[in-house]
Design brief:
alpha/beta, Nucleotidyltransferase, domain 5, six-stranded mixed sheet, five-stranded mixed sheet, 15 strands, about 25% strand, binds beta-D-glucopyranose
């Protein structure tokens, strides 16, 4: 490989409200194509989502886009390319061999990965967990709570920390950003719920670093300073593009 050839991969991030994708330079961790975003089809049914992903992939241009590794994120447990849960998406996904369905529709192989694992991998490769030893837990606060666990630079997949039962509740139903919005909580009220969530994580896993992602982490100064934890807790470096970056890096086996 010549010194000027950059490693390129495509990342597609499937979320509850939007599906977005771009081509990524894996050496710099930067997007090198326009970011294309299309609203997630109502109901989140598999066929409709696959169709949108195919459209986004066909619109991503740039050098080497046709043959680049392709990574796709999804907000569920992913085992061997199959979707095994559906907390905030259509139940039709449960048990589906999604990787094969996407592969057939797109005419190329894909790497299929949990959305928060992709965000965690992005932080590990290009963000707040880069070069860190020990256990970094990346949590994404959105519709649900996603989690990516990285130990000495290696991602441990499918940490479903948003579904820990805490004080008799599914954790994400109380502490996700969607709970703040749904219940009209102020920053302090919401921070009290985050406090409970993160102190349980601290007790159970003794992490070395907590990283907070999801769109709301751009407003981190409103809630992170309210938390009283022994573990350092920092905002994610990558927010809107974390899924794209992580999916691309994962697909390339970065
Ligand atoms: C899902 C996870 C996902 C998270 C964030 C949770 O409800 O169970 O798989 O990573 O939401 O989207």
């Amino acid at each position: 490989m010549g010194h000027s050839s950059h490693r390129i991969a495509i990342g597609i991030d499937i979320g509850g409200t939007g599906i977005k994708g771009a081509s990524v330079d894996l050496d710099s961790g930067e997007l090198i194509s326009e970011r294309i975003k299309i609203a997630t089809p109502e109901g989140g049914h598999p066929d409709a989502i696959i169709e949108v992903v195919a459209e986004i992939v066909s619109r991503i241009g740039g050098p080497g886009a046709d043959s680049a590794p392709l990574g796709v994120t999804f907000p569920a447990i992913i085992r061997d390319g199959h979707t095994m849960s559906a907390a905030n998406v259509s139940r039709e996904w449960i048990g589906l061999d999604a990787r094969s369905l996407f592969g057939r529709a797109l005419g190329r192989e894909i790497t299929f990965v949990n959305d928060a694992d992709a965000a965690g991998f992005a932080e590990s490769e290009f963000g707040a967990a880069k070069g860190r030893n020990g256990l970094s837990l990346v949590t994404t606060l959105g519709t649900g709570i996603g989690a990516g666990a990285i130990y000495n630079g290696v991602l441990i997949p499918n940490f479903e920390l948003g579904h820990l039962e805490i004080d008799g509740h599914d954790a994400e139903s109380r502490a996700a950003f969607s709970a703040k919005e749904r219940e009209g909580l102020g920053w302090e009220e919401w921070a009290a719920r985050l406090q409970r969530f993160y102190e349980v994580l601290e007790f159970l896993f003794s992490p070395d670093l907590l990283i907070v992602g999801g769109g709301v982490s751009k407003s981190h100064e409103h809630f992170l300073p309210l938390l009283r934890l022994d573990t350092p807790i920092v905002p994610a470096v990558h927010r809107n593009n974390a899924g794209i970056l992580g999916a691309a890096a994962f697909a390339a086996g970065a």
